């Protein structure tokens, strides 16, 4: 699949109507089913893009929806529901990622090591003008170190503001900007090297 | 501006913000840096397009998510039932402990009695002999 020409980090697209959310807030289970049908693929994808593991992503998705159901009353509707749901999911996935990281900290060889083993990037000139396949970008995202991946997924895939990214990652806005900046550079290297092969 | 300086700023520039005047001047005359900027813009556009291309969710996940309200209300009902009847449950637990204690004591006493014959004779028995 080819990428669309319009880029940037605009806000996420809204997947459900305000009326549907209101019905859910009143405890309407049929409305909830409709909301789940409309959003669960996106939410699962977000969790998978952060966590990489399908089982972890499914678990995080369930936890996120349970949190959302319980916190729906607090959703005031001044932000888009999709953005709010993405934040709930991101928060859940990142907490899971932290727990997972603590468990496997003793393991040798991290993501940075994996990155250093990848082929070096091709020249910019060779890539300039080429359109980047979505599959290539998706694959390259999976190779990024966790801390860059989460920041990039939230900012550049799901369009969260830098302030929201910082909040979700529990870091300062400056640190979030640095992660996004470095993440983009690493991702570009990965994409370029993959396209060059 | 030099290429190295411009290229350092390009990842941020491609996502947010406008180039400064000196940067624009450099980009106008430097084909390599323009290409670099275009590459990052392509990359960001592809990333943004991923949102609209969700991956396949596992079978059964949607059903589990749809069941959350009924599951949550069942758990909540159970919790509130326990909270409401905390005193009764505590009383029941205390009564169970008391009954178990009494039963244990009774068993112990019966065992003591049944093993009484094989024990050393008491002083009273010796006196009678």
Largest sheet composition of chain B: none
CATH fold type of the largest domain in chain A: Rna Polymerase Sigma Factor, Chain: A
| Tally of separate helices of chain A | 10
Continuous helix count of chain B: 7
Briefly note the structural class of the backbone of chain A: mainly alpha
* Helix content bin of chain B: over 70%
Task: Estimate the mean pLDDT confidence of chain A.
Answer: 81
- Summarize the main sheet of chain A: none
Order of helices and strands of chain B: HHHHHHH
Helix content of chain A: 55-70%
Q: Strand share of the residues of chain A?
A: under 5%
| Rg of chain A, Cα atoms, Å | 18 Å
Beta-strand percentage range of chain B? under 5%
CATH classification class of the largest domain in chain A: Mainly Alpha
The CATH superfamily of the largest domain in chain A is known as RNA polymerase sigma factor, region 2, helix turn helix motif
C-alpha geometry of chain A = globular
Q: What's this, in brief?
A:
By secondary structure, chain A is mainly α. Chain A contains ten helices and no strands.
Description:
The complex is a heterodimer of chains A (197) and B (129). Chain A is mainly alpha-helical and 197 residues long. Chain A folds into two domains: 13-107, Rna Polymerase Sigma Factor, Chain: A; 108-197, Orthogonal Bundle (Arc Repressor Mutant, subunit A), CATH 1.10.10. In chain A, 69% of the residues lie in helices and 0% in strands. Chain A is built from ten helices and no strands. In chain A, helix 2 packs across helix 3 (54-71) and helix 8 crosses helix 10. The two termini of chain A are 19 Å apart. Chain B has a domain at 3-50. Chain B starts with a helix and ends with a helix. In chain B, helix 1 (3-15) packs parallel to helix 3 (31-50) and helix 2 (21-29) crosses helix 3. The longest helix of chain B has 29 residues, at 86-114. The chains are: A mainly alpha (197), B mainly alpha (129). Chains A and B meet through helix 2, helix 3, helix 6, helix 7 and helix 8 of A and helix 1, helix 3, helix 4 and helix 5 of B.
């Amino acid at each position: 699949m080819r990428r669309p020409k319009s880029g940037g980090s605009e806000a996420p697209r809204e997947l459900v109507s305000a009326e549907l959310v209101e019905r859910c807030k009143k405890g309407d289970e049929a409305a909830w089913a409709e909301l789940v049908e409309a959003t669960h693929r996106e939410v699962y994808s977000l969790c998978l893009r952060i966590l990489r593991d399908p089982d972890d992503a499914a678990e995080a998705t369930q936890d996120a929806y349970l949190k959302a159901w319980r916190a729906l009353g607090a959703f005031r509707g001044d932000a888009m529901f999709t953005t709010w749901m993405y934040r709930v999911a991101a928060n859940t996935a990142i907490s899971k990622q932290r727990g997972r990281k603590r468990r496997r900290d003793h393991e040798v060889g991290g993501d940075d090591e994996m990155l250093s083993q990848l082929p070096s990037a091709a020249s910019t000139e060779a890539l300039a003008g080429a359109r980047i396949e979505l599959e290539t970008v998706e694959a390259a995202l999976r190779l990024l170190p966790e801390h860059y991946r989460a920041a990039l997924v939230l900012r550049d895939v799901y369009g969260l503001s830098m302030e929201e990214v910082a909040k979700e990652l529990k870091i300062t806005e400056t640190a979030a900007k640095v992660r996004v900046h470095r993440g983009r550079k690493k991702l570009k290297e990965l994409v370029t090297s993959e396209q060059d092969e | 501006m030099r290429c190295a300086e411009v290229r350092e700023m390009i990842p941020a520039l491609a996502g947010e913000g406008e180039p400064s005047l000196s940067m624009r001047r450099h980009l106008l005359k430097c084909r390599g840096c323009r290409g670099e900027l275009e590459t990052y813009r392509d990359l960001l556009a592809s990333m943004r397009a991923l949102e609209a291309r969700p991956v396949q969710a596992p079978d059964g996940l949607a059903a589990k998510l749809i069941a959350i309200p009924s599951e949550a209300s069942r758990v909540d009902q159970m919790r509130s039932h326990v909270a409401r009847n905390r005193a009764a449950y505590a009383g029941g637990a205390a009564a169970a402990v008391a009954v178990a204690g009494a039963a244990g004591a009774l068993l112990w006493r019966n065992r003591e009695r049944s093993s009484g014959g094989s024990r050393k004779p008491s002083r009273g028995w010796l006196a009678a002999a």
